[in-house]
């Protein structure tokens, strides 16, 4: 029972650690990364993965049985890619090539094996209108192994708070499970010792009766006189 509980707890902690990323801005024609990074790292290469846009109204990318399935794509055909090696390291980020103004919206990644969601927003502006320095969350490499985009301090703190809260919950439940196991062990040990004492007492009485010729004995162990 304890092993099953710990396994479910580990999966639960992974689910919470895949939190949302800030809004990404890109100019028309650029490539953008829709980030989804698992912490701690877990291999999800065998899990179905789906990227969708605006509450699953538009299917962006589907990965199943180790392959990308383009049949479900519409406006995103031949413009998305997942790095399969990255999936083994918990990197489920999606590269969206040659972004358009119509690509602006909210994107959701669903990892079926962990029942985990990642959310990120994309805002596409006309050429030359991007305010932040170009290159942030853009111009990705094929491996998709790029640093996370800079985020405001409060957003970074939120991510850290989620991570450490999960660790605290894990340690608390683990401690409770250990105490439960120890308590059960001590209880069983006391019951066993009590039963052993009863058996020893019965054995002693039986031996004393045998020595007294089968006559019942008094409290001192001497045969009682039969009137």
What features would you describe in this structure?
InterPro entries: Ig-like_dom, Ig-like_dom_sf, Ig-like_fold, Ig_sub, Ig_sub2, Ig_V-set, IgSF_BTN/MOG. It holds the Pfam family V-set. With 227 residues, the chain is an alpha+beta fold. Helix content is 35%, strand content 19%. The chain is built from three helices and nine strands. It has a six-stranded mixed β-sheet with strand order 1-9-8-3-4-5. Helix 1 packs antiparallel against helix 3. The longest helix has 59 residues. The radius of gyration is 33 Å and the shape is rod-shaped.
**If you compute it from the alpha carbons, what radius of gyration comes out, rounded to the nearest whole angstrom?**
33 Å
Q: Give me the secondary-structure category.
A: alpha+beta
Strand order of the largest sheet: 1-9-8-3-4-5
Largest beta-sheet characterization? 6 strands, mixed
Q: What shape does the CA trace take?
A: rod-shaped
Percent in helix: 25-40%
Quaternary state reads: single chain
Compressed to H and E, one letter per element, the order equals HEEEEEEHEEEH
Poorly predicted runs are 1-17, 134-162
The average pLDDT score comes to 75
Secondary-structure map:
Blueprint: H1 2-17, E1 24-27, E2 32-34, E3 49-53, E4 58-64, E5 67-68, E6 80-82, H2 84-87, E7 94-96, E8 105-111, E9 116-125, H3 153-211
Parallel strand pairs: 1-9
Antiparallel strand pairs: 2-7, 3-4, 3-8, 4-5, 6-7, 8-9
Helix pairs in contact: 1-3
Subcellular location: Membrane
Main location: membrane
Signal peptide: 1-17
């Amino acid at each position: 029972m304890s092993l099953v509980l710990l396994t479910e707890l580990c999966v639960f902690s992974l689910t919470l650690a895949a939190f949302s990323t800030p809004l990404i801005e890109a100019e028309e024609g650029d490539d953008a990364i829709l980030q989804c990074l698992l912490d701690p790292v877990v291999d999800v290469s065998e899990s179905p993965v789906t990227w969708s846009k605006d509450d699953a109204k538009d299917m962006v990318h589907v990965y199943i049985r180790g392959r990308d399935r383009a049949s479900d794509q519409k406006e995103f055909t031949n413009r998305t890619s997942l790095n399969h090696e990255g999936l083994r390291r918990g990197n489920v980020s999606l590269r969206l090539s040659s972004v358009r103004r119509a690509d602006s919206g909210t994107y959701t990644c669903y990892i079926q094996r962990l029942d985990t969601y990642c959310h990120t927003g994309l805002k596409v502006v006309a050429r030359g209108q991007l305010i932040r320095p170009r290159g942030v969350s853009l111009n990705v490499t094929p491996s998709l192994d790029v640093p996370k985009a800079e985020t405001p301090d409060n957003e970074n703190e939120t991510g850290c708070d989620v991570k450490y809260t999960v660790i605290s919950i894990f340690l608390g439940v683990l401690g409770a499970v250990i105490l439960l196991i120890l308590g059960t062990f001590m209880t069983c040990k006391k019951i066993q010792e009590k039963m052993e004492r009863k058996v020893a007492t019965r054995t002693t009485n039986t031996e004393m009766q045998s020595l007294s010729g089968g006559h019942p004995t008094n409290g001192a162990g001497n045969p009682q006189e039969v009137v």
